[in-house]
Amino acid sequence: MQQSDELTESIEEIDTDSTPTASEGGGESGRLGGRFSGKALLLSLVAVAIGVGVGGAIPIIGSVGSLVGVFAATFVLGILVSESRYLETAFAGGVVVGVNFALSLLTSVALPIGVDFFQQYGLAFSGVGVVIGVVLALVGHYFGRDLRDGLTREI
After folding, report:
1. Shortest CA distance to 85 belongs to which of 48, 129, 51, 55?
2. Which of 91, 53, 87, 98 is nearest to 72 (CA)?
3. Residue 45 sits in the same domain as residue 3
4. CB 127 within 8 A of CB 108
5. For the whole model, what pTM was predicted?
6. What total number of domains does the chain contain?
7. Which residues lie within the region annotated Disordered (predicted)?
8. Confidence (pLDDT) at 14
9. Are 97 and 127 a contacting pair, CB within 8 Å?
């Protein structure tokens, strides 16, 4: 009888000694409850930058190729990475494509005119690039995750 009482007491201790939650100051780290990963962000930034560089290096299609590169890079990330990382991928896509749009605006127009044109329209042009980058990154990551799910699911 004494052993069962000790067992009951130890089970009750385990139940009451739960780890503190994020709101209690422990448990998961960060403001986003452990959902944001710096390593995943770095991986996404590198992958999207490589996708933009490789896609933009294709002759004739240049800018469109860089956008296809964003989709392809995030698609591959969705296939390879075991956890879904939509936040990091969207951030990386927006940053890289926004910077790419701003730099392409500066280099595509003649330098004296380009600086004035960039001062007037650079922010809006980069904003369009950010939106396009976020959408392409999210769609690419989603389809990559979907393919991974279809390949790994048991029939």
Report:
1. 48
2. 53
3. no
4. no
5. 0.71
6. 2
7. 1-29
8. 39
9. no
